[in-house]
């Protein structure tokens, strides 16, 4: 089969980036309890870029990147029930979460390096990670949903306990998880406010259901956002750094802040009285359980929500797709089509 292969380990901090190779590799065979999926589409995540720079734990080579994918079942292994060849499916990239919904097993991992991922024509995957594709979704939309949709669902619904009428603040709109968080919160009846350095992205967010937004390059953006939103019942943060302090300032008394990333790095000069006098709830979140994946799919299907796809590239142009992601100009997900 054709696949994209990562072959080099890069020393973190070297600023070098590992090459990706488009080549022939053996087609996997499903074992007991596994399913072989003929992939139609895959999608990019920031994780894929971090791996190429050596900025991710547990990297092994050679391996096939890619966490998100959708396709058609080609073969089912022994003992698999509820699926058959020809079923259209989407893959949950949260591997071996375990029995405790509060946190994952020590053996938990994310699909795609070191476990061979979705940048390929075929993938073998445990049956528990395979879900029937919602009929209304295109192949591109289905591939866009898994990792970012699951992360957003756990952050907004499970951890954030979003309720109808809540004011939800999402900084840095445009990335995959932030965009899904907007869609999920809006579907739950929340009033969502966003930030971006792009007026175009703010306008697109409003089209998706946001109540408003501000440009964080504005000198007084925090005051402006506080004025139009009234403050946040819930903030969903992937930024960290100084932005996290701003979200604490924006939070209402008793508010919740859920963090799933820190693109700006550590939070410096955190004034703790602002946390405890406001009785804030600050929570970490990442990925999610199989049950949450099913709930996320059901929410999208019930409300016929369309995942936002920014651009589509053929698999062999994965380097161009990665460059597009690194530039950070996209709104929504970047998707790869898999050749026949």
TrEMBL record:
UniProt-recorded name of the protein: Zinc-binding dehydrogenase
Alphabetical list of InterPro entries matching this protein: ADH-like_C, ADH-like_N, ER, GroES-like_sf, NAD(P)-bd_dom_sf, Zinc_ADH-like
Residues forming coiled coils: none
Species whose genome carries this gene: Alkalihalobacterium chitinilyticum
Ranges of residues in domain Enoyl reductase (ER): 17-336
């Amino acid at each position: 089969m054709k696949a994209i292969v990562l072959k080099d380990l890069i020393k973190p901090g070297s600023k070098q980036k590992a090459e990706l190779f488009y080549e022939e590799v053996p087609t996997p065979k499903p074992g007991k309890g596994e399913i072989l999926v003929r992939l139609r589409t895959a999608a990019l995540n920031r994780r894929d870029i971090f791996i190429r720079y050596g900025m991710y734990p547990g990297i092994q080579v050679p391996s096939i990147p890619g966490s998100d994918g959708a396709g058609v079942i080609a073969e089912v292994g022994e003992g698999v029930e509820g699926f058959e060849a020809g079923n259209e499916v989407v893959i949950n990239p949260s591997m071996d979460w375990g029995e405790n919904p509060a946190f994952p097993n020590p053996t938990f991992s994310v699909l795609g390096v070191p476990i061979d991922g979705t940048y390929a024509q075929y993938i073998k995957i445990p049956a528990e990670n395979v879900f029937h594709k919602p009929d209304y979704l295109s192949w591109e939309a289905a591939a866009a949903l898994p990792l970012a949709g699951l992360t957003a669902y756990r952050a907004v619904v499970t951890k954030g306990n979003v309720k109808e009428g809540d004011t939800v603040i999402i900084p840095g709109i445009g990335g995959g998880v932030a965009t899904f968080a907007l869609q999920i919160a809006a579907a739950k009846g929340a009033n969502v406010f966003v930030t971006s350095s792009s007026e175009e992205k703010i306008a697109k967010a409003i089209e998706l259901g946001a109540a408003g937004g501000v440009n964080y390059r504005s000198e007084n953006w925090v005051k402006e956002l506080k004025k139009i939103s009234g403050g946040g019942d819930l903030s969903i943060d992937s930024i960290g750094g100084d932005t996290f302090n701003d979200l604490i300032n924006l939070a209402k008394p008793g508010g919740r802040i859920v963090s799933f990333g820190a693109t700006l790095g550590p939070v410096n000069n955190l004034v703790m009285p602002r946390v405890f006098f406001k009785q804030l709830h600050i929570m970490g979140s990442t990925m999610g359980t199989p049950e949450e994946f099913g709930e996320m799919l059901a929410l999208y299907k019930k409300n016929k929500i369309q995942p936002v796809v920014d651009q589509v590239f053929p698999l062999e142009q994965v380097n161009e797709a990665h460059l597009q992601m690194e530039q950070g100009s996209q709104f929504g997900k970047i998707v790869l089509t898999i050749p026949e």
